[in-house]
Protein 1
Amino acid sequence: MKKFTRSESKFIFFTLFILFVVSGYNFAISIRRGRDSIRKNDIAAVQGALDTYFQKYKVYPDATEDGLIVGCFENGPVLDEKTEVPINAIPCVWGQSKFEDLRSIPQDPNYKKGVSYYYTSSGQQYKFYIALEGKDEAEYTKVIADKNLQCGTKICNYGRGN
């Protein structure tokens, strides 16, 4: 049985190393795009729940200063007799609180790194923001990034509203 020469071994090692680096880079990009896809799906799911809330109460839920949705209830909604708007709503906790038809309101895939979603509302209009990781994503919006809104530890750069 013939062994590889030193130069053949180096060539094989170098080739495998290049393949490993290229594959690792592409794998990292795929993982990042997957997280961004989750964020886009989350924003669509929350929009559906916000629309359900609006259909029930004729108003979108308020927002806290740090971008939480004030539309969750401990023991069901208590409505104002005149406006029929809930008066006992509390801030929803991303990833924990039940909100309308969502078992738990979504949270950013990188929540352990302090990244979160950001919500604003005037009652009749809302905006929901996320921080996409990929600046090469088609939905990345520089105008939103320039607003310098904090999606936790990241700057929000994509949003949807009504």
Protein 2
Amino acid sequence: MRYVFGLLAVLGIVLSSLALREHYRTEDSPCHINDVWDCGEVNHSPYASLFGVPVAVIGIAGYFGLGILGMMRAWRVVLVAAVAGLAFSLYLTHVEKDILRVWCIYCVGSLGVITLTTLLALGINLFGGRLKAASATADSVR
């Protein structure tokens, strides 16, 4: 399972890195699809930075940390960090939907990654011990 978390972390880092590229891009955004989907507009908005740090950098650091914690199997800490990341991502989704009224495909992808990460971490924390016990019981029966 830890490799799944590592893979999700890499995917999150890639999406956040693409959003960071948009943050610093000066020419037209290649993901300007229409008036509803425009990564450039989202990543150049006042909401794209927090205390002067691009939100995408926070995402890169967060996914890196989640990947390390997942590889270490620190499942409780992964859950806490993933819930915090999901809450922040949901806030940013609210900004896109209700304030900017434009969406960034990288941000929506990142929301999917952090949601899946959170659900997997929740499952491991709720059922991980039971799965290990069931596996040990099954092994002893053989």
Protein 3
Amino acid sequence: MHSSHHPIRRRLLIAGAASFGAAVAAVALYFCGAGFLTGRSTPQPFAAAALPEGTGSASADAFKFSVFDQPRALPELRFADGEGRSMSLQDLRGRPILLDIWATWCAPCRKEMPALDRLQAELGASRLLVLPLSIDRQGLPVVKQFYQELGLKGLGIYVDQFGRAASSLNSVAVPTTLLIDRDGREVARKIGPAEWDSPEMIALIREHLGLPAYGRQASP
């Protein structure tokens, strides 16, 4: 009696495990395709609590920042520029910064980089420094190749050669963008890509960083 039920029970267990595995795979593919992974060896989808409040449409979410009641101090963060020279956020104090954590393997990052390039050209590096910080483990070669492929000319090249940027800044997704004031403090954060050179986004950046609302300024 009991032995005749064992094959059925095994088939049910196998079917259940297969369904569960398929569901897990689907979720993993969703996060991976959306670029919601860190650069770690194990995929880490970001927590829903990290998203900005509200459940607006995708187009509305593209213009949302998580704005802090008080500016937040940032840890010391060291990275390399396009020539391999070591530098830090402290070296850049005195100028507003848009720090974008990204990677060449992140599809949304690839899509938004030209917009960041245009944003830098629009506002000028003397008024706002757009700092795209790559977390690619292969370092400068893959980032330089990426810039050449997309024809990026206004943006500087910056690489997290120590592999600590994402964890130091509590970034659990790419792209993640921080707005940093002249005193080196984070005033707002955005998870996910955006149309950075759109009038709406430029207006928000100016508002949060206190930038003057006059027109184009060439980079020095």
